[in-house]
Amino acid sequence: MRASLCVLLLAVLLAVLLSLAAASTQSFTARVRKAHGHVSNEAERYWPPGHLFHSAVDAPAESVKHWGYEFTNHEENFYGPDSWAEYEPQCGGQKQTPIDLVSSAAQYDCALNSSPLQFTFAELRGNTLVNNGHAVQLNEQPGASQNRVVGGGLPAGVTYQFVQCHFHTASEHTLNGGLGAAELHFVYGNTAGYAFPDARELAVFGVLFKTGRENAALKPLTDALATGALNTVNSATTIASFNISSFLSASASYFTYAGSLTTPGGTTAAPGCRETVTWHVLSEYQEASAAQLELLHKAIGENTNRPVQPLNGRKVRTNVMPATTGGVGAAAGGSVNINFANMFAGLKVAA
Q1: What are the domain boundaries of the chain?
Q2: Which of 183, 214, 320, 324 shows the greatest Cβ crowding within 10 Å of its Cβ?
Q3: CATH tag, 91-349
Q4: What's the pLDDT tens digit per position in 290-332?
């Protein structure tokens, strides 16, 4: 009788433990889905095609890994930023992005002003806006872009053509340790056909946002989000028009440095995290309303930003001249309404 009672108690204990384990797994899955902005209950939508783990030899289906922004969970074949480099070694390189951009450590380079950024802008019309599971992304029509850029921190004489732009929430880069509410990346590819792993392959321009007034230039995107058309992974819609010139300009103040893509995945020939990017990050926040930011969160989640990476001795340059003698001291780190004369006081001048 006593033995039977012990067996019964053990069975009950085992059932409780199994139930707790199942609940924990479901909780993790729910957090991951939230991080990816998944609102559909269809299992096939949780991990969209094109965001799988790739190695030199593609992994067999049963061992395919899925990347995202939550902590790694090996039981679910899910890997987060804490272990991206474990599965994709290039994510552990010496020139990874994003970084903390510290105004007092940046080096003023007069060459950035003698050969300034020169943009050619054309309104985007009828372009596709997609939710790819990790970002809301606006794609240019292949070969159609008249939006181009040369100069600045880019290799002399090399022209780059607009490819796509996408959002991260919150920001990936930080300014003097401060995190923005969102970051918009404008991705340009060079038109001279440089092949990977040439560091001149891509030029990416980062624009950080803080919560404030409604941003009229963002309305074509956020109005599309407001319809709910992009609330599921791999959903897409067409927007009538969008102007890159509302965000980028030749007179913008910026930081520039050599870095990488900020996400893993990709393909064997063109892997994620590859260190082939010249970055320009604007040093002044733009504004977006709380309602506009909430639409982004609803579509892709609130934490789709890679943590900042080590600088590893890289030089960060700026086109903003240091304040002259008698100027006001440097502004406190993390300030958002930036006065450039204050923010860049005491900058190191490149030799």
Answers
A1: 91-349
A2: 183
A3: 3.10.200.10
A4: 999 999 999 988 899 999 999 999 999 999 988 643 332 233 3
